Amino acid sequence: IKSHGTAFLNTFEKIGPAILEMAHPSRTALTRKYAVFIIDDLVEFIGPAASKYFPQILPPLFKYALDDDPALQQASVYGLGVCAEFGGEGFDKYVNDSLKVLANAITKNRQNPKANEDLHSATDNAISAFAKTCKTRSKVVNLSKALPAFLHWLPLRVDESEAERVYAMFCSLVETNNKHLLGDTMQHLPQAVKVLVHVCGSNMIEKDLSARMARLLLQINTKMPPKMLDSLRSTLPGPLKEKMDKIVEAVKASS
Length: 255
Prior knowledge:
By secondary structure, this protein is an all-alpha fold. It is 71% helix and 0% strand.
């Protein structure tokens, strides 16, 4: 699909029914996962031209985004992110349904007391897909509701490949004082700071992004009015407060 691009559409017209049959609930989780992989690639490498098939290919993604099999769920939530990013305006009318499914998957997984690394990875992919949807289909998303939800699902747990992209978007929102993320009165800033401190210097992100987070923390600590800073610091657990102070001092020393 990647090498043929839109030329693959003629082939999909012939084999599409067989792929959708592979995604039928009666098939094994492994077979359904491979069907979802093909659907994901179809949209990612063909782009908006694949949107004509959304009525057929989105129902399996919506269904299996909530599946108990972590690998099948991960492939499905990833696919919803792909549809948002590469599916063009044809995906707009499905955005609200997609965000609801992703939010339900994240909530369900986070409430699972037996969640393992595979399920954490599926959850991270769902959060990433949610973020991609907010970014690429922003015209049809209620960002004042969606972005605070995204913020409170952070930090990611295990998926380093998704983390770099998610946290780059997160940093851009904080840097611009995005009111949808932080709130009209900056009421969500303490949670944003907790995420910055937690992730900065971790192995989840590259050094450049970590340095970007450190600079943000310095800016917050030096430009915020003292009373507001004291109030913010009071919301941080002791270890995070200590870590933030070390990060800020390190940035000052290196500048």
